[in-house]
Design a protein that fits this description.
- With 248 residues, this protein is of the alpha/beta class.
- It has a single domain, classed as Decaprenyl diphosphate synthase-like (Undecaprenyl pyrophosphate synthetase, 3-Layer(aba) Sandwich), CATH 3.40.1180.
- Strands 3-4-2-1-5-6 form a six-stranded parallel sheet, with helices on both faces.
- Helix 3 packs across helix 4, helix 4 packs parallel to helix 5 and helix 5 packs parallel to helix 6.
- The longest helix has 24 residues.
- The protein is globular.
- The N terminus is likely disordered.
- The structure holds 3-methylbut-3-enyl trihydrogen diphosphate (IPE) (2 copies) and magnesium ion (MG).
- The site of one 3-methylbut-3-enyl trihydrogen diphosphate has 11 residues, from strand 2.
């Protein structure tokens, strides 16, 4: 019973619309750490722990696709020590969480480049993708070494390599050559840590996503914060360039 009562807003029927695809820019680990006088890396560890918790809520709420921004193509610019810590944290997350994710029906997908990642890490990622490929309760896209521009460059390269003629190329062609091929676009992009920018995240896919920013740092983004974001989303009116439906 404790489980349902902690989901009070759901019980009250307040949450009626759950987005299919939620994407999160998990920002603010460094500032979270700084506020506590601990190293930035400790903030990243706290962030990883938080992802575990948020995943449980996301599954319970029935969200079908979750894309999390864990490491951008620009994050290589950080001090080597921090980069190394982020890389090893990703590997450790796979080691520690894979069994449970698999049991819980989560399908893991990597979105991003494998270039610059160690062969061991790439092997781990591929293994995690492979052993969870039959799962369909939740698709978890981990955007790691991901950049929206790099993704578009990769898509164009593949399209050219396939020898497609200019007139054969339309929006669907591009969508099908992105890392997220076959997946619905994000309905809601959440950014923690307060910055009001995309930082190269899902540039193509986010064309009509609703954007939600909270000042809360990622390690503190809990179930209540998630529900707040979802409740906010459900009051948005999505028009996709058209007119509100009641004026149709
Ligand atoms: C987000 O937290 C995690 C990554 C970008 C890898 P940050 O490390 O960017 O935290 P802030 O923005 O410095 O607080
Ligand atoms: C975006 O955060 C990338 C991730 C959360 C992984 P950043 O901290 O790298 O973004 P900027 O530098 O503030 O734009
Ligand atoms: Mg940041």
């Amino acid at each position: 019973m404790a489980r349902t009562s902690s989901f009070a807003p759901l019980e009250q029927g307040e949450l009626k619309v759950v987005p299919t695809h939620v994407a999160i820019i998990m920002d603010g680990n460094g500032r979270w750490a700084r506020a506590r006088g601990v190293p930035r890396v400790a903030g990243h560890r706290a962030g990883a722990r938080n992802l575990r918790r948020v995943l449980r809520d996301v599954i319970e709420l029935g969200i079908k696709v979750l894309t999390v921004y864990a490491f951008s193509t620009e994050n290589w610019r950080r001090p080597e020590r921090e980069v190394r810590a982020l890389l090893s944290l990703f590997g450790r997350m796979i080691d520690n969480e894979l069994d449970e994710l698999k049991r819980n029906g989560v399908r893991i997908r990597h979105v991003g480049r494998t270039e610059r990642l160690s062969p061991q890490l790439v092997k781990k990622i591929r293994y995690a993708e492979q052993v969870t490929q039959e799962n369909d309760r939740l698709i978890l896209n981990v955007a790691f070494n991901y950049g929206g521009r790099a993704e578009l460059v990769d898509a164009v390269r593949r399209i050219v390599a396939e020898g497609l003629a200019p007139e054969q190329i339309d929006e669907q062609t591009i969508a099908e050559h992105l890392y997220t091929a076959g997946m619905p676009d994000p309905d809601l992009i959440i950014r923690t840590g307060g910055e009001m920018r995309l930082s190269n995240f899902l540039l193509w896919q986010g064309a009509y996503a609703e954007f939600y920013v909270t000042p809360t740092f990622w390690p503190d983004f809990d179930r209540e914060e998630l529900l707040k974001a979802l409740l906010d989303y459900q009051n948005r009116q999505r028009r996709f360039g058209g007119l509100p439906s009641q004026q149709g």
